Amino acid sequence: EARYAHQPEFVQAVKEVALTIAPLYDAHPEFQKMKIFERLVEPDRIICFRVNWENDKGEVQVNRGWRVQFSNALGPYKGGVRFHPTVNQSVLKFLGFEQIFKNALTGLPMGGGKGGADFDPKGKTDSEIRRFCYAFMRELHHYVNKDIDVPAGDIGVGGREVSYMFAMYKNLTREYGGVLTGKGVGFGGSLMRTEATGYGAVYFLENMLAAQNESIEGKKVLVSGAGNVSLHAAEKACMLGATVLTVSDSQGTLYDANGLNQEKIDWLKAQKAQSKPLCDYVDVYGGEWFAQQKPWHIKGDIAIPSATQNEVNEDDAKHMVENGIRYIVEGANMPLTAEAVDHIRLHRVHYAPGKAANAGGVAVSGLEMSQNSVRQYKTFEEIDERLKRIMKNIHDGAAEASANYGQTDNGYIDYMAGANIVGFKRVADALCAYGILN
Ligand code: NDP
């Protein structure tokens, strides 16, 4: 911990895993002997590079880019690329570390990694975004390949950015393959990849509710964020009969007491795609805009935080408990601070950590990789069915591990411990089999 005190997000993610896998570790002396945990907290390597590009005025800009190749014990390094001014090594190491176990949970052959740049896409023109993506891949292409490391999107990186990066990779290597996932459907992308993280989180939620003999129909849902994960989580929750009351962004929270519907969600998607303000919604559909506020002061049954890390602090968690929230499903990665997690668990709020609940995105990325390899494509229905099955398997595996390692009482399932145990064990077993080479 002292060695990485300057990387608080990374330490936070590692501590959570360390505390929850203790019973598994005690039961497996071979993990201790092989120093599996000590090995897994050090990435295989971190690649760090400068990105030079020109803005529309012809001025030279300089940014920093990274790729953290954390573990390829179970398959090629796999994880998104984030473009946001807050990106640094601590953030990418926490994301890459979590990604190892998330990818293991999907049951698909993928290792863990993450990348990004401290580039701020806000206010940039399309040609500036294109030039930055090209410049970023001009450096990154040396280190990635469909069998080595397969990046994808994350905050600030969607279909448009993936396409620009793919074009540069193809141009430099003359290779048309599955080096990136989240590509356009017409040129190698998988159907449903765009929807998969948000839809998958709601499928996970349905399994949690079923385990408590409840259903999503009629439940009041608070969603934070208004990006890829948030809007698709909101969309699926609406489709299944929930009332989605909020979405938010870095400027504030939108509250619609009548609930969102498909038309409103389509409007929100179009608005965000043009980088226009969320608050314009009120003029079109009514509702309220709470500037610079998060959604957590509103009453509801279920919260799906889907914006960014540590967006829910202890005070927010207290508001959630007071306001009747009984289920929290993390669409984002590590959106709750450690203190917030402690508070909601103390109050027995059913809680699905991101590495289990938002694994649907990378799962469909895994399916995209296999479709690229065999050069054959599946239908939307086939992928949706597979996604549902994967989310159910992750849910059931975590619930079973929670029971086996004594983390369950009175029907409360410790998904955090269960998911960490299942993910960690899969990776640890592989590392033990390899000896000390990985
Ligand atoms: P997007 O860029 O599409 O959307 C991010 C949303 O969160 C935007 O509404 C943005 O607001 C808001 N946001 C981002 N940073 C902040 C901040 N510091 N404070 C307040 N609001 C913020 O990203 P995604 O939807 O792809 O990702 C959201 C989360 O989900 C991340 O934690 C990501 O790691 C995780 N995730 C994403 C997956 C995917 O498939 N895309 C897969 C698994 C996890 P604004 O528009 O104002 O910036």
UniProtKB/TrEMBL annotation:
<feature type="binding site">
    <location>
        <position position="197"/>
    </location>
    <ligand>
        <name>NAD(+)</name>
    </ligand>
</feature>
<dbReference type="InterPro" id="IPR046346">
    <property type="entry name" value="Aminoacid_DH-like_N_sf"/>
</dbReference>
<dbReference type="GO" id="GO:0004354">
    <property type="term" value="F:glutamate dehydrogenase (NADP+) activity"/>
</dbReference>
<keyword id="KW-0560">Oxidoreductase</keyword>
<feature type="binding site">
    <location>
        <position position="228"/>
    </location>
    <ligand>
        <name>NAD(+)</name>
    </ligand>
</feature>
<dbReference type="Pfam" id="PF02812">
    <property type="entry name" value="ELFV_dehydrog_N"/>
</dbReference>
<dbReference type="GO" id="GO:0006537">
    <property type="term" value="P:glutamate biosynthetic process"/>
</dbReference>
<keyword id="KW-0547">Nucleotide-binding</keyword>
<dbReference type="InterPro" id="IPR006097">
    <property type="entry name" value="Glu/Leu/Phe/Val/Trp_DH_dimer"/>
</dbReference>
<feature type="binding site">
    <location>
        <position position="78"/>
    </location>
    <ligand>
        <name>substrate</name>
    </ligand>
</feature>
<feature type="binding site">
    <location>
        <position position="365"/>
    </location>
    <ligand>
        <name>substrate</name>
    </ligand>
</feature>
<feature type="active site" description="Proton donor">
    <location>
        <position position="114"/>
    </location>
</feature>
<comment type="subunit">
    <text>Homohexamer.</text>
</comment>
<dbReference type="InterPro" id="IPR050724">
    <property type="entry name" value="Glu_Leu_Phe_Val_DH"/>
</dbReference>
<feature type="binding site">
    <location>
        <position position="153"/>
    </location>
    <ligand>
        <name>substrate</name>
    </ligand>
</feature>
<feature type="binding site">
    <location>
        <position position="99"/>
    </location>
    <ligand>
        <name>substrate</name>
    </ligand>
</feature>
<feature type="site" description="Important for catalysis">
    <location>
        <position position="154"/>
    </location>
</feature>
<comment type="similarity">
    <text>Belongs to the Glu/Leu/Phe/Val dehydrogenases family.</text>
</comment>
<dbReference type="InterPro" id="IPR006096">
    <property type="entry name" value="Glu/Leu/Phe/Val/Trp_DH_C"/>
</dbReference>
<comment type="function">
    <text>Catalyzes the reversible oxidative deamination of glutamate to alpha-ketoglutarate and ammonia.</text>
</comment>
<dbReference type="InterPro" id="IPR036291">
    <property type="entry name" value="NAD(P)-bd_dom_sf"/>
</dbReference>
<dbReference type="InterPro" id="IPR014362">
    <property type="entry name" value="Glu_DH"/>
</dbReference>
<feature type="binding site">
    <location>
        <position position="102"/>
    </location>
    <ligand>
        <name>substrate</name>
    </ligand>
</feature>
<feature type="domain" description="Glutamate/phenylalanine/leucine/valine/L-tryptophan dehydrogenase C-terminal">
    <location>
        <begin position="190"/>
        <end position="435"/>
    </location>
</feature>
<dbReference type="Pfam" id="PF00208">
    <property type="entry name" value="ELFV_dehydrog"/>
</dbReference>
<dbReference type="GO" id="GO:0000166">
    <property type="term" value="F:nucleotide binding"/>
</dbReference>
<dbReference type="InterPro" id="IPR033524">
    <property type="entry name" value="Glu/Leu/Phe/Val_DH_AS"/>
</dbReference>
<keyword id="KW-0520">NAD</keyword>
<dbReference type="InterPro" id="IPR006095">
    <property type="entry name" value="Glu/Leu/Phe/Val/Trp_DH"/>
</dbReference>
<dbReference type="GO" id="GO:0005829">
    <property type="term" value="C:cytosol"/>
</dbReference>
<protein>
    <recommendedName>
        <fullName>Glutamate dehydrogenase</fullName>
    </recommendedName>
</protein>
